[in-house]
UniProtKB/TrEMBL annotation:
The lineage of its organism: Eukaryota, Metazoa, Chordata, Craniata, Vertebrata. This is Olfactory receptor. SMART domains: 7TM_GPCR_Srsx. Residues 59-310 form the G-protein coupled receptors family 1 profile domain. GO terms for molecular function: G protein-coupled receptor activity; odorant binding; olfactory receptor activity. Belongs to the G-protein coupled receptor 1 family. Keywords: Cell membrane, Disulfide bond, G-protein coupled receptor, Glycoprotein, Membrane, Olfaction, Receptor, Sensory transduction, Transducer, Transmembrane, Transmembrane helix. It is a multi-pass membrane protein. It comes from Seriola lalandi dorsalis. It holds the Pfam family 7tm_4. The chain crosses the membrane at residues 44-69, 76-96, 116-138, 159-180, 219-239, 260-281, 293-313. It is found in: Cell membrane.
Length: 333
């Protein structure tokens, strides 16, 4: 009896292990864990998410339209702001519509291809924001430190090359990151997050993915450190140039401040959101919903606030928005 029982237990153990590591077959449908929504709060959270998304669309849409319409704003700084706006819209659109669906209908399922697309868009948004801010720092450095040669250096070709390089680096880094998904079998379908990400999907892999982990950490550290060095160097030189020239012209310092403030505020806001995400995951006692909220902080807050920062700090952009808005109001009357 003991032998038979032991043999049966061994077979049961083998069957359980086999079931656990059996790779899923296509079509794979994931289920997002999402937020725990108390009864009666779904509609309220849907309205909040919808309001946030409308603010993102309207704010960024106004900035892009005004820059396109006003020929006086067809300059490198505003062209780069347009690229940042596109990047913000990419990140917000990748997450907020599905989050609204989750609040409104309780739908948590997402197919494999849309899941990869969402994760790819979110990671591209994160890296492209940094690389574009790095390109913008270079533009501000040339504008303040080499004002007489600015137009000769920052030509149309160089401007588009800088923006294209920023997008290329971001897309290449993320494409390599997701190349590891191609031959990785998955043994689970429950994503313990609000949205799909590289790490959340690969946690469902049947085997460990050390290469992906090493590359992901190395890539994130390299991009963040590299962009920080570029921005720190640019603003150090800008500060030096402003102090030297302020002795001759008192308006130079204030002009440099106005020129660079919006860029610096956007970068600092993005970094603060990133630090909050990292710190929140270090507190084991914090609720999962709080951690999930902080994890989407850099997707829902900066895209909504950035257009306000551009409009408040940039006098030219603010004046152009007011002028076109006033013109539309009087035209309707």
């Amino acid at each position: 009896v003991t032998l038979v029982s032991g043999h049966s237990a061994l077979n049961l153990s083998i069957e359980c292990n086999t079931t656990t590591v059996t790779p899923l077959k296509q079509p794979i449908v994931f289920e997002l864990e999402g937020f725990h929504v108390p009864p009666g709060y779904s509609s309220f959270l849907f309205v909040l998410a919808l309001f946030n998304y409308m603010v993102v669309l309207m704010g960024n849409g106004v900035v892009v339209c005004v820059i396109i319409i006003d020929k006086n704003l067809h300059r490198p700084m505003f062209v780069m702001i347009c690229h940042l706006v596109v990047c913000d819209l990419l990140g917000a659109t990748a997450v907020l519509p599905r989050l609204m669906m989750h609040f409104l209908t309780g739908e948590r399922r997402i197919a494999h291809i849309p899941a990869i697309a969402q994760a790819f868009s979110v990671h591209t948004y994160g890296v492209a924001t940094q690389t574009l801010l790095g390109a913008m720092a270079y533009d501000r450095y040339i504008a303040v430190c080499e004002p007489l040669r600015y137009h000769a250096i920052m030509t149309s070709a160089r401007l588009h090359s800088c923006c294209g390089l920023a997008w290329f680096v971001a897309l290449l880094c993320i494409a390599v990151l997701f190349a590891f998904h191609m031959n990785t079998p998955l043994c689970g379908n429950i994503i313990k997050h609000v949205y799909c990400s590289n790490r959340a999907i690969l946690r469902l892999a049947c085997r460990s993915t050390p290469i992906n982990n090493i590359y992901g950490l190395s890539m994130s550290w390299s991009v963040s450190t590299g962009i920080f060095i570029i921005i720190a160097f640019s603003y150090f030189r800008i500060l030096q140039a402003s102090v030297k020239r302020s002795n001759v012209d008192s308006g130079v310092r204030s002009k440099a401040f106005q020129t660079c403030t919006s860029h610096l505020v956007v970068y600092v806001l993005y970094e603060i959101a990133s630090v909050i995400i990292i710190v929140s995951h270090r507190f084991a006692s914090a609720s999962q919903d709080i951690k999930k909220f902080f994890s989407i902080l850099f997707i829902i807050i900066p895209p909504a606030i950035n257009p306000i920062i551009y409009g408040l700090v940039s006098k030219e952009l603010r004046s152009s928005i007011i002028k076109h808005f006033t013109k539309q109001v009087f035209h309707k009357k």
